[in-house]
Specification:
The protein has 476 residues and is of the alpha+beta class. Helices cover 47% and strands 12% of the residues. The protein is globular and about 75 Å long.
Length: 476
């Protein structure tokens, strides 16, 4: 079995033509893909010597023979980022990592030997960042860094030190016991129907109607929306392909792949949106759907779109929301109008239905009001209370109330539970011929709809088990 070479040493292999080839990674392109140089020789020893000379000429950040327990933490962090982390990161994420590593972590902790870095060193570093770590725009945001940035520095240190443990440079990871600040999740907001109307009227006046209407109708991320080209849209079928995103990296607009594999998807646009885009295309002379008004053959800048959103909201008298909250508004509206969670998860490009439920099943004021009315009618008997005493019929509503609380279901009918304000789940778990349980579930927005779906599921699963029993008998 061939012996695996250590990271950073390059690779040596025998070619089909009988020569030995050595390859060495000398850097990475803007997409994080490795750039290599190679050497050729007729013997393996000669190839290794040439490869060693190539590495010295290229002046790699850290030679593998220098990877020692007492090396500087800054040197290890740089080596880990360039060789283990950077190749897997998107350009925008690379920018975040480099900010943490080269502007915050290395200047503070870089000179400490790797095997002497302690939990106390790291914890004090995080505390300093939180108190007075900001390097610029202090007058706007204060001296301390945000909890998110401090926690990002901790995650970077912990991951790099995990690799050092795996490479047996240190015995334990000192970052494991640290307590970085917890990041408070920002509460997402949605625009009400009235606010959406005012917002779109103002957007038409400002010249951004098509852009904002498109986002409210599809729930695209800002980068995905701005990266769309006319070739991505099929006007005959209404299919819109999402295959790229725009982001600003190191001061330049960069087009790259979307956030996740699930983000690469195809949407079907409503006919009204297609007609709007047809009329809009006649006014646009660019391959980009939303081109920059200043730069030729360039999409709109994400930063300028964010500023335009703030101005339009302010002029329309709407509450201040982020661009991502337009996506949140779409998802919430889709749930209100009955789109099932699985379909919504696919449309907005989530990896799982659980993510959609946790993030985008937001309860709007309208949904709360509807829930309150249902409670009043079903439990508080509000209808009877609103009627005059002499006209209120002595209806026996108490029986109905009791019947809806804690009623046991009959065996073989599955179970029903409410897992969200407007989401019900039905489960059925029969045992198959092998004695093992089979699990099935359905989802719906009302109890009645879920009951119907559950009945169909039970019939289908019973038929499958019956067919399986028959096959077992025939085989015996």
């Amino acid at each position: 079995m061939a012996k695996k070479r250590k990271g950073g040493q390059g690779s040596v292999h025998l070619r089909k033509d009988g020569r030995w080839e050595g390859r060495y990674v000398v850097g990475y392109d803007e997409f994080g893909l490795p750039k290599t140089k190679n050497v050729l020789a007729y013997t393996k020893t000669e190839c290794q010597q040439k490869l060693k000379k190539l590495k010295e000429e290229c002046g790699g950040a850290i030679k593998s023979e220098k990877l020692k327990p007492d090396m500087r933490f800054g040197d290890w962090l740089d080596y880990w980022y360039q060789n283990h982390s950077k190749p897997r990161l998107r350009p925008s994420t690379q920018q975040e990592y480099e900010l943490r590593i080269y502007q915050y972590i290395i200047p503070e902790l870089g000179n400490i030997p790797l095997n002497e870095l302690s939990q106390d060193n790291l914890q004090q570093f995080y505390n300093r960042l939180k108190k007075s770590g900001r390097l610029r725009k202090i007058e706007l945001y204060g001296e301390g860094l945000s909890d998110r940035t401090v926690r990002g520095c901790h995650i970077t240190c912990r991951t790099a030190l995990d690799r050092a443990v795996k490479d047996k440079l240190i015995r334990t990871n000192p970052a494991e016991g640290c307590k970085p600040p917890s990041v408070k999740k920002k509460e997402m907001q949605v625009l009400t129907r009235e606010e959406m109307q005012r917002f779109l009227i103002q957007a038409r006046e400002d010249g951004y109607y098509e852009l904002f209407l498109m986002d409210l109708s599809t729930g695209l991320r800002r980068g995905e929306l701005l990266a769309m080209q006319w070739d991505d849209l099929n006007f005959d079928t209404g299919e819109l392909r999402i295959t790229k995103q725009v982001s600003r990296v190191r001061g330049k607009l960069t087009v790259s792949e979307p956030k996740t594999k699930a983000s690469i998807r195809t949407l079907i646009l409503p006919s009204a949106i297609l007609e709007m885009l047809r009329a809009y295309k006649a006014r646009v002379n660019s391959r980009w759907m939303f081109p920059s008004p200043k730069k030729e053959d360039s999409p709109l800048d994400p930063a300028s779109v964010r500023k335009r959103l703030c101005k339009t909201l302010e002029r329309a008298g709407c509450k201040k929301v982020r661009f991502h909250d337009l996506r949140h508004t779409f998802a919430t509206t889709a749930l209100e109008y009955g789109m099932d969670v699985k379909t919504l998860s696919t449309v907005i490009g989530h990896n799982s239905v659980a993510t959609t439920l946790n993030i985008y099943a937001h309860i709007t004021d309208d949904m709360r009001a509807t829930a309150a009315v249902n409670i009043d009618r079903g439990i508080a008997k509000q209808e009877q209370a609103e009627m005059p005493a002499e006209k209120a019929a002595p209806e026996k509503t108490e029986t109905d109330f009791v019947a809806t609380k804690g009623q046991r279901r009959k065996p073989g009918t599955g179970c029903l539970s409410q897992i969200g304000e407007h989401l019900w789940e039905g489960k059925y778990s029969p045992r198959g011929p092998d004695g093992k349980k089979r699990h099935g579930n359905v989802y719906a927005h009302t109890r009645e709809e879920c009951e119907e779906k559950l009945k169909v599921l039970i019939q289908e699963m019973k038929a499958e088990i019956t067919a399986e029993r028959e096959r077992s008998k025939n085989a015996a």
